[in-house]
Amino acid sequence: MEKKEQFDFRGMSFYQIWIRSFCDGNGDGIGDLTGVYNKLDYIKDLGVDGIWFSPIFPSPNADYGYDISDYKDIHPDYGTLDDFRRVLDKAHKLGLKVLLDLVINHTSDEHPWFKESCKGKDNPYSDYYIWRDPIFKGERRLPPNNWFSQFEGLAWEYNENRGQYYLHVFARKQPDLNMDNPKVREEVKSIMRFWLDMGVDGFREDVITYISKDKRLPDGIPFIPAINGLKFYNEGPNLHNFLSEFRAVALEYGAVQIGEAPNTSVSGALKYIAGPDRVLDMMIQFDTMMADCFMADYIHLPFSLRRLKRAFTCWQYGLGENAWNALYLENHDHPRVLSRYGSEDYRRASGSMLAACFILQRGTPFIYQGQELGMTNIALDSIDKYNDVVSVYAYHHFHTHEPVEKRLRRIHISSRDSARTPMQWSAAENAGFSEYEPWFYVNPNYKTVNAEAEDKDPESILNFYRKCLQLRKSSETLLKGSYREYRRFSSRIYMYERAYEGEKILVICSFSKKEIGCRIPRAFYKGSGKTREASPAAEVILDNYSVAGMDEDDIDCTKKLRLMPYEVMVLRRKKEC
Ligand code: GLC
Ligand code: CA
Asked: 0.90 exceeded by the pTM?
């Protein structure tokens, strides 16, 4: 089969849509494709080059779209296939690529394949899932091994009809597919072709590094909850083979593939994303999501800038020239980054600093809806108001001896629902998201934090995102340059340099609530030439404390800069003539 050339995903940036909370186009309180259609110009104006849609397919919503009951249709809440074609067409006319979420580690238990599979051991779908006989200890019926699911309790659920257990690494309603069955892989390819034939440009591939299980399904480490079986399904024995099969399909269309890999490492990722024979183009790693938690958001720790910097730099150096980074600080699976790594007391400064901090690294940035407005976490007053299966399970099963307020606080700082509140379009009722009561709670700060107000304010977070994306796009150094970190041990400053063909750009990010001093590398201050005579200082090309920009006199020739709370300053030193 012929291969089509891939588009230049390295020069691009993407916007992630979690459709249910993005924009309601038909007044029923639920975001939909008409809403997306109406906001495509907004997305284009932000300066991104494409959209990644979290799942928009029929789903009982046990895990909000990540439990799919039909891979080749649109959820009726969101519209029809024709509505999707209309969005795709307009996006393409605007020059925006469109990526869909390919969720093939598991389906919904309401998918017809699973319903058939449950009927018995001798039907065509019987082997589509991972079924095993129980183990009997005397009269006691036990699951085939001791694995926990990552979302709720044990990883096995008993089915009376088959007299067997099925595996679910995530929620009970998300049975894992048996990818070792060639028929399942053919289904995956057929799903890919269905959307690629329609004109979709690629996929973000959900927990793709989990799709190959060690067939022996051995017991995991007994006392570790949630991930004790990980060793036997993360980057499993046939993963590379399976991904190569899917890659062949993608390449026929020139489609781009971004894998999600919750527990990968640089060396793990490089096996899949390096070189021309790579089977994925980028990997979504989780290390940069763990600067204020241990393994999962629920196990909270105080934010550590040094942990964040180690993660950034480990991936920047680790992938280097061999592979390409997917850059992100937010998505639908984590609380809002401003509330985590920034400061709600310094909303504008920290929200904009965080933008430059990741967008100007080497890689392709992904921006999650509302991140560009500096949306923050929500704190609901009862667990009954939360939807996220992870939060609800954690609340009812962990720390149950603690007072309710304390347990709720744990949910406030960790829940995925904070990223799933309706998008704040304006100060109008329901934040301009819908004319009808929205399906989920609107963050009460929408009167000040909203797209309409920020659009008009030249110093808003929204306009700073636009500037960052524009700057990245216009600079070969930022698109192609190398990365080097400075001041590695500072717990207040993150500083890195991008260099390309003699030009250097320095990004200085303060994570401090106080005004602080900061030394910069020699190449950027006055008099840096060999003769030490006063050569001009680098120019400031971006700063979140000044719209007009500064002139070179603001850069102190004594090498020290003053930084305001959460200030970010970007300096450029042009190639010496
Ligand atoms: C991915 C998705 C997340 C989902 C999980 C199981 O991590 O991003 O939302 O819950 O996979 O599908
Ligand atoms: Ca709607």
From this structure: yes
